[in-house]
């Protein structure tokens, strides 16, 4: 049994003595993870982990070594995109509000703006439903208020051209194949096709406060985490490529979901990515 220490002590010490007198060296993975965790978590970076010391200290170590040391530290994807994608996924999952708030704070700590955070949450209106997005926005409000962040909400695109604006956005992210989506629904649910274009693309995805690359990678993250929409995940992996994301970035954001949604979700996401990459050539 290893003597209990706080995470701060764990992260700054080189070794500790267990009750049998054996020396345990802290791993390089842990040290790398602590540095990333400090960037994401800010002043209270170790608060949630320290609360595990009396019940599951190994879970604290796994979190630092694996989630931050093995996954978040990888340089194929920047921390801002990682945090926005995590917020999008946790919002969609809807079952981890404390962690969602931690990562909303994390977004701000690594340089994301409040409007970018809100935009990543609003994606859930399309893919996970309004209750998920509402709860995510309420969590963001709490974080902004706790930090004293001055935030002025952005306005939706205005005008009566929602369909045209949505169709243009759909064509931009789909590289011209958006018309197939509309056509495929004409014989059974033409109004659903209109809703997708007007609301999903015209009202949400066309909003200006978050670039299309970040939106599509965040969408890939949340669809991977949900694990219930493989055809749509396929579409948005293609869309990510169309708006400038690299294959490596797509793989990174899918792998990251192993932390938040489990390995099966990440494995299924990677299988879909493999299919897309093979078809693209």
Automatic annotation (TrEMBL):
It comes from the Bacteria. GO terms for molecular function: peroxiredoxin activity. InterPro entries: 4CMD/NDH-1_regulator, AhpD-like, CMD-like. Residues 57-137, 190-273 form the Carboxymuconolactone decarboxylase-like domain. Signal peptide: none annotated. This is Carboxymuconolactone decarboxylase family protein. It comes from Adonisia turfae CCMR0081.
């Amino acid at each position: 049994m290893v003597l209990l220490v706080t995470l701060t002590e764990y992260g700054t010490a080189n070794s500790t003595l267990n009750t049998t007198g054996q020396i345990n060296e802290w791993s390089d993975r842990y040290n790398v993870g602590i540095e990333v965790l400090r960037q994401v978590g800010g002043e209270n970076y170790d608060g949630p982990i320290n609360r595990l010391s009396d019940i599951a200290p190994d879970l604290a170590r796994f979190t630092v070594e694996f989630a931050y040391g093995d996954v978040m530290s990888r340089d194929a994807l920047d921390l801002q995109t990682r945090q926005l994608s995590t917020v999008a996924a946790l919002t969609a999952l809807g079952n981890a509000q404390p962690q969602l708030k931690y990562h909303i704070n994390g977004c701000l700590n690594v340089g994301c703006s409040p409007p970018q955070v809100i935009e990543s949450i609003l994606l859930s209106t399309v893919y996970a439903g309004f209750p998920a997005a509402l709860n995510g926005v309420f969590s963001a409000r709490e974080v902004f208020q706790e930090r004293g962040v001055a935030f002025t909400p952005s306005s939706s695109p205005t005008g009566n051209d929602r369909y045209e604006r949505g169709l243009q956005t759909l064509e931009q992210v789909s590289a011209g194949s958006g018309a197939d989506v509309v056509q495929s629904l004409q014989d059974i649910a033409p109004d659903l096709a209109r809703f997708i274009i007007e609301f999903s693309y015209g009202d949400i995805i066309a909003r200006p406060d978050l670039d299309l690359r970040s939106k599509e990678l965040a969408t890939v993250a949340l669809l991977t985490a949900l694990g219930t929409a493989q055809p749509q995940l396929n579409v948005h992996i293609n869309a990510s490529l169309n708006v400038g994301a690299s294959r490596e970035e797509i793989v990174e954001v899918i792998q990251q979901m192993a932390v938040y949604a489990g390995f099966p979700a990440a494995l299924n996401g990677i299988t879909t990515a493999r299919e897309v990459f093979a078809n693209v050539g």
